[in-house]
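Practice problem. Given the sequence and the SMILES for zinc ion, write out the predicted structure.
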Amino acid sequence: MEKQNERMRVGEGRISGAISIFLGSLSLLGILCFKFPEQLTTPDFREVYTADMVEKLMYGVIIATFLFALVSMLLSKSRKKAVIGIILGALTIVMGGFNVQGGPVEKVSWSIGLDWLLLDLFIMALLFVPIELAFPKNKLQSKFHNEWKTDLIYFGISHLAIQFFGVITKKPAVAFFGWMNLESVHEWVSGLPFLVELFLALLVTDIFQYWAHRIFHSHHYLWRFHSVHHSTQNMDWLAGSRTHFIDIFFTRSMSYIPLYVLGFSSLTFNAYIVFIAVHAVLIHANTSINFGFLKYIFTTPQYHHWHHCEEPEHYGKNFAVVFPFIDKIFGTYHLPGNKWPKGTGLVDASFPKGFGRQLVFPFKKNPFNNDLLPEEKSER
Ligand SMILES: [Zn+2]
Ligand SMILES: [Zn+2]
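Answer key:
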């Protein structure tokens, strides 16, 4: 087990300093969204928020940057974090942070999802950092462990490229099923009660996702790509973002096929996206929250941490992302009472670290030296 970075304790001023730097960075990058909305904001996501909402949020985040810097200044012996927070906040104001104006945006063919990245990062941090602090699974794990920067890069790139992934993951569904006349199916599905429709969307996508995921675990060449997702030893709210782009493309394309064929209403589709976005972060989070009996209906952190288990005898279990009963049906269910895996990650200590190396790793000649699947290694 690698040495964990030292944990921050309440009252030292380091947590408030880190929050100040985090908020200062968000607001400074947020300015760019207001200055270049055509290139740096997402057409679909712009429909979710209003100009008024993001203007007010900007003011609030700038003020909070200074407040947390002040708290850090008062509590901490080292003023470094507070000073960085103040500089970031000051730069945001100089660049017009208190005079931002959101207005109508011209449509351009391609844009980068910086608005989606900043808002989702803000919301997920606000939701999951307190949960991980209050109900941690691994109490000794620092928020700033040795893998967080790599995982943040994955989070950043997958969000910035949202439009690109959105377009390419729809292509296979259209190519294979676009010729069918699906109008009567769409009419029937979108006429179902909302909760039934949402359950159906989650169920059919999870069955497709299950098999895509299982194929990634059972095929030598595909495992190279999916092993990247399993390489993180420090499970937390950012860890799930660590996914190779080939893995994202294949798994999302497969999950999109039933959505395309069945044609869910936009309300259901949006609810599905929100559920999946929050739930995917939750199941990787460093939290022992297990939702009582609900853990038998929906997958929980404990359930998915077993999928990431480091011990070879438990490999190849819990492929479902939403419904554990899918694993039950196909014989891959593993949830031993309240027990958690001892460790998560890959036994292979030589696995490359860092985004760039992991990006090229699967394309290398014989990257694992023997190209055996983890299950095959455990049988030796
Ligand atoms: Zn997996
Ligand atoms: Zn995972």
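Check your answer against the key. Residues 51-75 form the longest helix (25 residues).
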